């Protein structure tokens, strides 16, 4: 992880973090390199694949950002959009038995995954509390997610139960952990990568630690699994959805969407709505449909 041994003058790499104008790039040979960017590439973000070049003075610069699969953008406190993470393959949506699961929030994260064209993995933490706190409705909600093709994993950030299996689902992918406060994201991250402090300590030498709340760090784990993590990524929830985007975020709705009588059907009150029909026919879960209606009302 040292850049002194670097002999190449140009190459391709991946941004593993950024601090203000400075970016840390992991090169193909796994060494890391501090880079700046041309002004017009200023939106380079953690997770981006980039071409870099070293000039005569020894400093390196990013010359090209490769086309992204997707990106997560948030507004800065000045109201400007800022990309905080790029090229995310899997959203690990963490809930726990205490604080209790909020299925409407899980739906919202799933919508984000569908919009990003990323996989969604539902993780329920604190297995030790299931017996005391899990309700029949909770188990039903989990069954419904599995029924429409989402994987559900039960883990313990405390004992480490299920963590190996979680790690397996991450392999070959760039993953992010999401979930509300107290569900155990830090505990899970620590279980997955007990050595992560080392990486953090390395990059913090560039100063400007206050940026760590918005910038993400990319951690490479065994089996080519990557975890992209930061408080700003963890509490990301998609907003500014319209009714069409919302409906498209419920994947079990998709086969029916073109069969409604009205092309701009909101699947709420309209006659001859194929979604409402599918709910009646028990093809679509009434619970998910009700949460869709609640979300629609809150747009
Ligand atoms: N009983 C139980 N408690 C757990 C488990 N995993 C984590 N906790 C506890 O849950 C609390 C919250 O865990 P954190 O890892 O800080 O949760 P977080 O999601 O990172 O929270 P924020 O940083 O607020 O977003 C802590 O007191 C943990 O010790 C578990 O498997 N079982
Ligand atoms: Zn409809």
Quick structural summary:
The protein has 299 residues and is an alpha/beta fold. 28% of the residues lie in helices and 25% in strands.
Q: Notable features of this structure?
A:
single chain, 299 residues, Rossmann fold, 6-stranded mixed beta sheet, globular, binds guanosine-5'-triphosphate, binds zinc ion
Task: Write up what this structure looks like.
This is Small ribosomal subunit biogenesis GTPase RsgA. Belongs to the TRAFAC class YlqF/YawG GTPase family. RsgA subfamily. Its EC number is 3.6.1.-. The structure is a single chain. By secondary structure, this protein is α/β, with parallel strands linked by helices. Among the domains are: 86-195 and 217-234, Rossmann fold (3-Layer(aba) Sandwich); 243-297, Probable gtpase engc, domain 3 (Ribonucleotide Reductase Protein R1, domain 1, Orthogonal Bundle), CATH 1.10.40.50. It is 28% helix and 25% strand. It has 10 helices and 13 strands. It has helices spanning 103-116, 130-133, 136-147, 163-170, 185-192, 196-203, 231-234, 243-248, 274-280, 286-297, and strands at residues 10-19, 22-27, 32-37, 49-54, 60-65, 71-75, 81-86, 90-96, 119-125, 151-154, 174-178, 217-220, 226-229. The chain has a 6-stranded mixed β-sheet with strand order 10-9-8-11-13-12, sandwiched between helices. A 5-stranded mixed beta barrel has the order 1-2-3-5-4. It is globular. The termini are far apart. 33% of the residues are buried. Mean pLDDT is 89; it is low at 198-213. It binds guanosine-5'-triphosphate and zinc ion. The site of zinc ion has 7 residues, from helix 9. Residues 125-126, 128-129, 156-158, 179, 181-187 line the site of guanosine-5'-triphosphate.
């Amino acid at each position: 992880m040292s850049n002194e041994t670097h002999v190449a003058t140009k190459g391709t790499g991946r941004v593993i973090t950024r601090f203000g104008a400075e970016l840390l790039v992991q090169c193909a040979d796994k060494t890391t390199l501090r880079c700046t960017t041309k002004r017009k590439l200023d939106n380079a973000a953690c997770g981006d694949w980039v071409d870099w070049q070293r000039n005569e003075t020894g400093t390196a610069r990013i010359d090209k950002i490769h086309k992204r699969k997707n990106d997560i953008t948030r507004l800065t406190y000045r109201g400007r959009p800022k990309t905080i993470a790029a090229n995310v393959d899997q959203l690990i949506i963490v809930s726990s038995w205490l604080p209790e699961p909020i299925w409407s929030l899980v739906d919202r994260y799933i919508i984000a995954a569908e919009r990003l064209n990323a996989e969604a993995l539902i993780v329920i933490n604190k297995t030790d509390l299931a017996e005391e706190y899990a309700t029949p409705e909770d188990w039903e909600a989990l069954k419904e997610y599995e029924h429409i093709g989402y994987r559900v994993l039960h883990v313990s950030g405390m004992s480490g139960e299920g963590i190996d299996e979680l790690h397996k689902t991450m392999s070959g992918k760039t993953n992010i952990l999401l979930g509300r406060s107290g569900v155990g994201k830090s505990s899970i991250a620590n279980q997955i990568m007990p050595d992560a402090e080392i990486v953090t300590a390395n990059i913090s030498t560039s100063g400007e630690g206050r940026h760590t709340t918005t910038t993400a760090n990319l951690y490479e784990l065994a089996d080519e699994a990557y975890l992209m993590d930061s408080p700003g990524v963890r509490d990301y929830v998609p907003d500014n959805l319209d009714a069409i985007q919302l409906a498209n975020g419920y994947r079990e709705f998709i086969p029916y969407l073109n069969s409604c009588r009205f092309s701009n059907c909101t699947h709420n009150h309209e006659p001859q709505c194929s979604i409402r029909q599918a709910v009646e026919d028990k093809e679509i879960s009434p619970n998910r449909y009700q949460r869709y209606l609640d979300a629609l009302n809150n747009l």
